[in-house]
Amino acid sequence: VTDTTVTCHRLVGHNYLQWSQSFKIFLIGRGTLGYITGKIKKPSVDNPGYEKWAQENGRVMSWLLNIMFPETSSQFLL
């Protein structure tokens, strides 16, 4: 069983510092902070590791969307 609760903080703009620190702690615990910092680089599409990278990157992006209010997440999607 995996816990899908990312954080109790949802980004509304004025709470960015609290929200970002909470999300950073979550990402560190999942070993995925590098997707946000850029340390984990996107491999080329023909690289054997691309599928794994795309799956993990999509997971991190969905976590981000789930901890934003709709007004904020719509800007992130664009």
Describe this structure in words.
The chain is 56% helix and 0% strand. The protein has helices at residues 16-30, 34-37, 50-66, 70-77. It is globular, with a radius of gyration of 13 Å.
Topology readout:
Elements: H1 16-30, H2 34-37, H3 50-66, H4 70-77
* Helix percentage: 55-70%
Q: Note the run of SSEs as H and E.
A: HHHH
Describe the oligomeric state of these chains in a short phrase. Answer: single chain
**Major beta sheet summary:** none
Beta-strand content: under 5%
Which regions contain 5 or more consecutive residues with pLDDT less than 50? none
What is the radius of gyration computed over CA atoms, rounded to a whole number of angstroms? 13 Å
Instruction: Please report the total strand number as a whole number.
Output: 0
Shape category: globular
Cα-to-Cα separation, first versus last residue = 33 Å
Helical region count? 4
Query: Overall mean pLDDT score?
Result: 87
Structural class: mainly alpha
